[in-house]
Amino acid sequence: MSSPPAKRIKVDVEQEACSTTGEHKQENTTLPWGEHCVGITEFVNASIPGFTGIIKHRYTDFLVNEIDEEGQVVHLTDFSLPKSTPLEPPKEEVPLLSLEESVSNLTDLLGNAETPLEIQKLFESKEEEPQHVFIEAIDDKEKRTKIHQFFKNAFDRKLVTEASDGRIKVRYVAEGVDRRDRKFQRKRNDWNVAEGDFCRFVLHKENKDTMEAVNMLSKVMKMSSKIFSYAGTKDKRGVTAQWVTAYHVKPERLLGLNKRLRGMQLGNFGYCKNKLDLGDLKGNRFSIVLRDVTVDSQEIIDQAVTTIKDKGFINYFGMQRFGSSGAPTHTIGKAMLLGQWEQAVDLILMPREGESGDIAEARKAWAEHHDPKKALEVFPRKCVAETHILSAFAKSGQQRDFLGAIKMIPRNLRMMYVHAYQSYVWNHMVSQRIQLYGSDRPVVGDLVLANESELRELEEADVSEDGDEESGHVAVKVLTEDDLPQYTIYDVVLPLPGFDVVYPENEIGGKYNQLMSQDGLDPRDMRRNVKEFSLPGSYRKFMAKPENVSWQTLKYTDADASLAQTDLDRLAGIQEPAGVPDGDHLALRVAFSLSSSQYATMALREILKTETTGSFHLALSQKANQPQI
Description:
Pfam families: TruD (PF01142). The chain has about 625 residues and is of the alpha+beta class. The protein contains 19 helices and 18 strands.
């Protein structure tokens, strides 16, 4: 039996209008911006009534703890320093010789008094004449070695030796050590840890995204952000914990930063041999509080959460993938795929509906004057794409090389736009799949992976360091009638459009053509003249099923009361809030684990049956007279 038709949710929040694509276009062309604009329309079980609850009223209502490759949930639990084994045992310090001892011992070593006196004069001259002294050629290699070694602890280490045309040249160096020597020694000896070249630590952050946190660390430490690496980026509005690796950074130094950092703490220090790469994780553990819940009965809540526990939810790409209504990321990506570089630049730079503050003023300044240098002065640094485009215009002195300006945007960010278009298509196709065939079982023509371990989601990690989109062909099987008993709906995948994927051999295959042709694109022709925008495509599971699902309701009175326990709370001995039995408000506390490419907001959407856009929940907060904090 197929799933019932999707329940349409009426959005009562005033938002910008958007044009929908495909079959929905005939239904309504001026619907407010929301999930339907990016293909998010269906539910696994639409028969369960929806209810309202505010997502992320406080950023502490959204806790995210990384699950590492060993399946361990990452928590900040201590600030102790690790023990290490030195690669080489420390050498005993040899005491410096006095000037008198230096001259006397050198005289004995050379077997003459004249050269040591010249060297003494060099030492006392401090780079005045003579600038160097030669020790004449010595045939005995062992003796030459002894002479070089001698100067390392003589003459206050301000004289250095080097071979020169068979002789030994003695020079004066003001700081006591050859600068070239010092640079070499620093590279060799500063890191002396047998356990590996990397310090691994837990980054616990509040209300800032991972890149912002890492940039803050590198700025405080006056080091390049490239020394830090991590398995995945965590969103800004929440409290998150994840592993980070740092190349040749001592844990003592990182620990010392905790007193200076705001909204961040570092701990659980250790050493490892390899750095983290994007994708080196199993997923994330979410602990989420939904506030000001309005529902007819506890039974509805229990049924809704039980649905995602037992059946899962539709594995849509969440709204954060698509940005804001003013210039959704997928529309910028579509322009790039069409080679409409000027339009892509305009979508990134020009004014947007609904924006205010510094960014709105900066866009207005650009639209009025088209002066990249002046615009750069007012655009906030956090507007990465905008500032890189404007910098390209300012440096080149002309504003017509739109592709060149786009290429100045950091690669992961510019590829995010075209990936967003793929995600937009995928969302629409999964909704079409449910409308045609339901969400409870595979059908003939569906796709499953030939080898489950080969699944590669469309993530930033799919972009190789040499700048090419990785193809990594994944084999899939097209289901026949005989295959159906061997597979479940959780095996079914749908392709993200590209030149190296197979499309379903049922009605959904044709739906890709119908949707993308309206945008002037062909799902089977995704190669481009600009190589980096040639998309091989990949596959994504149709359904997502969370693990270790738990939930409870609690009442509270203070609208801004803390209702979650962070790692820092736990370290401080603060117990998890228990609520107030006779409180005026109801909250739902839900926890679950997801794979790395799955969106918690889409699980919440299946529970609530309401929009998950930030503007929708901001409006709910305002309606309840609870400004977001």
